[in-house]
Design goal:
By secondary structure, the protein is an alpha/beta fold. About 45% of the residues lie in helices and about 15% in strands. The chain has 14 helices and twelve strands. Strands 1, 2, 3, 4, 5 and 6 form a six-stranded mixed sheet that branches. Strands 9-8-7-10-11-12 form a six-stranded parallel sheet, with helices on both faces. Strand 11, helix 9 and strand 12 form a beta-alpha-beta unit. Helix 1 packs across helix 14, helix 4 packs across helix 5 and helix 4 runs parallel beside helix 13. It is globular. The structure holds phenylalanine (PHE). Phenylalanine binds next to helix 11.
Length: about 350
């Protein structure tokens, strides 16, 4: 029997060494069942290149779910650049790294398009664009849709409102872990709504902007265990572990970090403890929704923002259906994504 290659997941793994920069670059195309694989380019140190590949694999699979749940006709992929430990690359060396990423994206001939992620910004996308057309989120002055962290934060805030309605309780306290581009914007939005905030980040330079918003600065360990209405994971993934669940004292978890759970079973542990977890592939989709709406569909900024706000409706539908079925929101989200992928996997 002829094997069904389209159903191999990941569909393709490309690991290489940048010819200019000598850094390991991995691109994983998880699925193109719904369309071109989409996912940002993550630039950070890894213990070894295989760790970078493994991370890209997990992140690409999350992008497949993200696009499927957002109703987008895109698949999932991710690029990971395993830079040496220490300060991030700058100057001519950074340019070489990004040109190498561009060449690697170009090798995939349109099966994958990249964008910003942890460690990369819109200006970097312009450098990548010198080598491939398959890149989102160049600065607006350069013809792109610009920074995706604003739309990502807007999607989270829309989802937070829905969560409060679903739980029929006012949100008065929140703990935010990760005060980067997206986390800080979320903190801003919540503070403006009168929410009391505790905040944490491994990077102590984030303390000052967080405190400027009125947030109380605490160690990451404490922020994860804070007695609050809402925990917002806005750092790198894997923060929520099985052991941590027993010590958590929040009522709900909703944030933009990709792959928040160390393991899918951790969602069931949260559910069993009565902590509502809003699946990250649903609520973190603002960036891709906004970028594709503007750069591929030609929508206006206003229309794109309205589309991002629809994340609220998607989350409401998933929470309602999960409650009706008596399953965790994680399970309902997974089932929905799988159904959409199965329905179109032959096209
Ligand atoms: N890195 C973001 C994500 O994981 C945003 C992104 C926007 C990626 C546009 C690709 C294209 O969703």
């Amino acid at each position: 029997m002829k094997p069904n290659i389209a159903r191999l997941r990941p569909e393709q793994v490309l690991a290489t060494t940048g010819s200019r920069s000598d850094v390991p670059i991995a691109i994983v195309v998880d699925s193109t069942a719904l369309g071109q694989a989409l996912g940002g380019c993550r630039l950070k140190p890894y213990a070894g290149w295989r760790d970078g590949v493994a991370d890209a694999e997990r992140l690409a699979a999350a992008m497949t779910e993200k696009c499927a749940l957002a109703g987008l006709n895109y698949g999932g992929g991710k690029a990971v650049v395993a830079v040496p430990a220490g300060p991030p690359p700058t100057g001519a060396y950074r340019r070489d790294v990004l040109l190498d990423v561009g060449d690697t994206v170009a090798e995939l001939d349109g099966r994958y398009a990249t964008g910003p992620d942890i460690g990369t910004a819109p200006e970097d996308m312009s450098v990548i664009a010198a080598r491939t057309a398959h890149v989102f989120c160049r600065p607006e002055a350069d013809g792109g849709s610009g920074d995706s962290s604003g739309p990502t934060a807007a999607g989270i805030l829309a989802a937070v409102n829905v969560l409060a309605e679903h739980e029929r309780r006012r949100l008065t306290t929140a703990s935010i872990v990760g005060l980067g581009q997206v986390g800080l914007r979320i903190a801003c939005g919540l503070a403006a709504a009168g929410v009391r905030i505790v905040a944490a980040d491994l990077d102590q330079r984030r303390q000052r902007p967080a405190e400027a918003l009125g947030a109380a600065w605490v160690p990451v360990h404490d922020a994860l265990r804070a007695n609050v209405d809402l925990l917002v994971p806005a750092a790198t993934g894997g923060l929520l572990t099985r052991d941590l669940v027993d010590e958590m004292r929040c009522r709900a978890v909703l944030g933009p970090a990709n792959n928040q759970l160390d393991d899918p079973q951790t969602a069931e542990a949260l559910h069993a403890r009565g902590i509502l977890w809003a699946p990250d592939p649903i609520v973190s989709a603002g960036g891709v929704i906004h970028a594709t709406a503007i750069e591929r569909e030609g929508l206006t900024a206003h229309e794109a923002r309205r589309r991002v706000a629809r994340i609220g409706g998607t989350l409401a539908a998933v929470l309602d259906e999960a409650r009706r079925r008596g399953v965790s929101p994680a399970r309902e989200a997974r089932d929905r994504a799988a159904a959409r992928l199965a329905g179109q996997s032959n096209s």
